[in-house]
Write a structure and sequence with these properties.
ten-stranded mixed β-sheet; 10 strands; 436 residues; 12% strand; alpha/beta
Length: 436
């Protein structure tokens, strides 16, 4: 069996700007540092991220919101959000920060660059662990998310792939992505999340199945608190298998939010690395072009553990359980190991409850998607005609990929976070650039 072609998106500004997000300060450096410390960059093609253009951000976000973001050039520590800021969701959980527009365009550009790798057939799997911000809405920020890079990346994928399956593993419901495609038959949204009174965002019950033309193309698995690997994997095995066989996607996007891991401060679930990896392995086994993104994860060391483990899973490398020594090594105490211990508390999800959810979902899929069975036998990969003309020049441009600089030279250009974190990077690792 041939090894997968794997693209790993990186750029100095992508790490630095992601480190500045108020909810996850410094997390991006920890994640990249651990992936580097394990030597996983030797097994991927490192692609330098390009910032999203204004027109690319408008694939989802309104110009009113984007123009307002441009006004935040320098924010003082004592800045108080205005009524106009709050109109665009910039306040309580998404406070304005300096250079806001560039942060948004850089983070969205990471996921857009990863999507381009799949569109151009440069990679079978592309990953951007700085992405995955699934709550942001068309007209504003929400739930720690200033930009919905996921929707923007999906729109890029749709220029080649007619049917996209979006899977959300974050402990919080992926409401922003679902809202974007609630009326769509070409993007199926599938979310596994904790669903309880008072738990953000409060959406994603099992009866939430899409609207009008898109009815039946949204699937939610609302789980009770403290769900364990057994519950999660059982639900995922059944539901993913049904959804995949009914929808037959051309490409898959997975939001791998790490906040469903045990002991996450904003979570309330009880997963370990094994629960996530078993589910992601099942998706990868379908051999479809796959985009892997980050998301929530507020125990930063555990988020780094998870996304490093998924990276290793993709490139088929077995990791030592002992965390390698590197600049963030002390953050992994007290045991300094990769493994995450399961909770000792009781999983509040009974087998009967999960079986009832599966039965309900099966009925919904049969009702709304079974009539597409013949059509789905031969998935269409032709680009949408309306987008083909507009994107033909861009496709020709993007098809030129050059190896511009070895990583050593990139690091010499700037005081790099990579250099600060991991001096063990070898000179043989290349960074590839898209060129105009």
């Amino acid at each position: 069996m041939n090894k997968r072609k794997v693209a790993y998106v990186w750029e100095q500004d992508l790490i630095e700007f992601s480190d500045r997000l108020p909810a996850v300060l410094g997390r991006a450096s920890m994640v990249h540092s651990l992936i580097t410390a394990y030597g996983l960059l030797d097994h991927v093609k490192v692609i330098r991220s390009q910032s999203a253009s204004y027109s690319e951000l408008k694939l989802f976000h309104s110009d009113l919101y984007l123009d307002h973001l441009k006004s935040f050039t320098h924010i003082e520590d004592d800045y108080v959000a205005t009524a106009k800021d709050e109109k665009f969701g910039l306040g309580y959980d998404c406070p304005p920060v300096s250079d806001m527009y560039n942060i948004v365009s850089t983070i969205a550009g990471g996921s857009l660059t990863a999507a381009k790798c799949l569109v151009m057939n440069m990679a079978d799997v592309a990953m951007n662990w700085c992405g995955g911000w699934h709550h942001a809405q068309k007209y504003g920020a929400e739930g720690f998310c200033y930009v919905n890079d996921i929707v923007i990346a999906i729109e890029k994928l749709r220029t080649k792939f007619s049917k996209i399956l979006y899977i959300d593993l974050d402990v919080h419901h992926g409401n922003g992505v679902q809202d974007a495609y609630n009326l769509s038959k070409s993007v199926f949204t599938l979310s596994f999340h904790k669903y309880e009174p008072g738990f953000y965002p409060g959406s994603g019950n099992i009866e939430d199945i899409g609207r009008l033309n898109g009815k039946g193309y949204t699937c939610n698995i609302p789980l009770h608190a403290l769900y364990s690997d057994d519950t999660f994997v059982n639900a995922f095995d059944s539901v993913f298998t049904m959804v995949y066989s009914c929808f037959l996607p051309d490409a898959i996007v997975i939001q791998c939010g790490a906040d469903a891991l045990a002991r996450d401060p904003h979570g309330g679930a009880g997963l370990t690395l094994n629960g996530y990896c078993l589910c992601i392995k099942k998706v990868l086994n379908e051999m479809k072009p796959t985009l892997l993104l980050g998301g929530g994860g507020y125990n930063h060391a555990n988020a780094a553990r998870l996304w490093t483990s998924i990276t290793a899973l993709v490139v088929e490398v077995k990791l030592d359980d002992n965390i390698p020594e590197h600049s963030f090594w002390t953050k992994y105490g007290s045991d300094y190991t990769l493994n995450i211990r399961p909770l000792l508390t009781k999983d509040l999800n009974s087998k009967n409850y999960i079986d009832e959810c599966i039965t309900t979902i099966k009925g919904t899929l049969y009702r709304y998607l079974s009539h597409n069975e013949d059509e789905n036998k031969e998935p269409i990969t032709k680009r949408r005609k309306t987008e083909l003309d507009d994107n033909s020049h861009e496709a020709k441009r993007d098809s030129i990929l050059t190896k511009e600089l070895v990583l050593k030279n990139v690091l010499n250009e700037k005081a790099s976070i990579i250099m600060n974190c991991d001096n063990k990077l070898t000179n043989s690792i290349d960074v590839y650039d898209f060129i105009d």
